[in-house]
């Protein structure tokens, strides 16, 4: 009799659990798949050359990649780790990326290489080393080495890192800043050997007159390295030639001393692109003169307390920028297309909100992805 009751209670419990699961499935809120750019200004055809990507959560541990174009949206299954903020590429190559958060990356058709200085230095660790990993795309063979960097002390810290390929060699560069205001920043450049060991190539003093020199993003066009230097007295663009191991600085009159923060610095074959306090400048690489006839600014600035630049890309004579505007703990994302020469806004639109569904922000991707 007692045994029969146990079986009966177990059956009732199982049925109850099944009922609860069924109710939960019925009451599950469907994922909002409405992704439509909201036109604000201009002609949407200006977005012909770009696409946008983000990742949404569609179920427990299930994610989809959203590819958004000017008049279409596609959804593709993908992988994502919310706790670490990493996507499919990292999760498919855990052996390579493990322990290398926010690593600098270089990729070509044959291999992927990443490099990251010891993230715990100098407070959590006194070991000055860089980890370099290289993975062959055909064989999946992985090389991974931890290389000590003598001469870097615990009263210094790393501001910028970069990997660049030049004449079939890969270079690792880093900006080292001192905690002492009397010592300026230094750019160190190393050539990476086939066994991933480093050969020191250059040490460049980045100091400008004044008490402190601020260093913006280190960028490359594949032939040279470029970096923006700022002090209380002046702003300079430094150009480092990897063929001659020499460098030169240029004055950029478009950057006044009132321009306090460089939000984005990019370079391509013909131009430099600087986003300074939400004003975009296009600079000719040969003359170092401003190309855009008027300063490029989004028209929605006055609506928000703060505007940040999220991503940027260029195609032909058009510069595309993703902005995020913040006001009262809320934010909106926009895309703006500028004509590089006239400075005119060709298009301005609000990107679909990812609130309660998105796990990563928008970024530009190739339209063929």
List keywords for this structure.
3 helices; 369 residues; disordered N terminus; mainly beta; 5-stranded antiparallel beta sheet
Explain this structure to me?
The protein has helices spanning 2-27, 88-91, 94-97, and strands at 38-42, 51-59, 62-68, 73-78, 80-81, 86-87, 104-107, 111-117, 129-136, 142-148, 156-166, 169-178, 186-192, 198-205, 214-215, 219-220, 224-230, 235-241, 246-251, 262-267, 271-276, 279-284, 306-315, 318-327, 330-339, 345-350, 363-365. It is mainly beta and 369 residues long. The strands form seven sheets. The protein has a five-stranded antiparallel β-sheet, with no helix packed on it. Strands 15, 16, 17, 18 and 19 form a five-stranded antiparallel β-sheet that branches.
Helix-strand blueprint:
Blueprint (H helix, E strand, L loop, with lengths): L1 H26 L10 E5 L8 E9 L2 E7 L4 E6 L1 E2 L4 E2 H4 L2 H4 L6 E4 L3 E7 L11 E8 L5 E7 L7 E11 L2 E10 L7 E7 L5 E8 L8 E2 L3 E2 L3 E7 L4 E7 L4 E6 L10 E6 L3 E6 L2 E6 L21 E10 L2 E10 L2 E10 L5 E6 L12 E3 L4
Antiparallel strand pairs: 1-26, 2-3, 2-27, 3-4, 5-6, 7-8, 8-9, 9-10, 11-12, 12-13, 13-14, 15-17, 16-17, 17-18, 18-19, 20-21, 21-22, 23-24, 24-25, 25-26
């Amino acid at each position: 009799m007692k045994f029969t009751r146990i079986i009966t209670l177990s059956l009732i419990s199982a049925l109850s659990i099944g009922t609860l699961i069924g109710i939960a499935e019925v009451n599950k809120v469907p994922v909002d798949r409405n992704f439509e750019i909201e036109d604000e200004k201009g002609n949407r055809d200006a977005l012909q050359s770009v696409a946008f990507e983000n990742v949404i959560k569609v179920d427990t541990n299930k994610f989809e990649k959203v590819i958004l174009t000017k008049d279409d949206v596609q959804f593709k299954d993908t992988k994502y780790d919310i706790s670490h903020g990493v996507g499919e590429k990292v999760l498919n190559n855990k052996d390579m990326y493990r322990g290398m958060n926010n690593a600098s990356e270089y990729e070509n058709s044959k291999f992927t290489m990443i490099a990251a200085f010891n993230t715990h230095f100098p407070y959590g660790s006194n070991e000055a080393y860089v980890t370099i990993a290289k993975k062959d795309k055909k064989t999946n063979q992985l090389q991974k080495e931890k290389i000590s960097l003598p001469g870097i002390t615990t009263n210094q810290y790393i501001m910028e890192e970069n990997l660049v390929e030049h004449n079939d060699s890969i270079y690792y560069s880093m900006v080292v800043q001192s905690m002492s205001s009397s010592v300026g920043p230094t750019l160190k450049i190393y050539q990476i050997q086939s066994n991933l060991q480093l050969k020191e190539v250059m040490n460049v003093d980045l100091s400008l007159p004044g008490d402190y020199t601020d260093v913006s993003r280190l960028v490359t066009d594949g032939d040279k390295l470029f970096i923006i230097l700022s002090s209380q007295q002046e702003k300079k663009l430094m150009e480092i030639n990897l063929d001659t191991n020499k460098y030169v600085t240029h004055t950029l009159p478009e950057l006044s001393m009132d321009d306090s923060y460089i939000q984005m610095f990019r370079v391509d074959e013909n131009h430099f692109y600087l986003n300074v306090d939400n004003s975009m400048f296009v600079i000719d690489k040969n003359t170092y003169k401003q190309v855009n006839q008027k300063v490029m600014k989004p028209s929605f600035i006055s609506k928000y307390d703060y505007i940040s630049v999220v991503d940027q890309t260029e195609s032909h004579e058009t510069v595309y920028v993703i902005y995020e505007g913040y006001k009262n703990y809320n934010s909106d994302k926009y895309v703006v297309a500028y004509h590089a020469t006239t400075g005119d806004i060709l298009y301005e639109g609000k990107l679909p909100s990812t609130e309660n569904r998105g796990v990563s922000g928008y970024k530009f991707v190739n339209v063929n992805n």
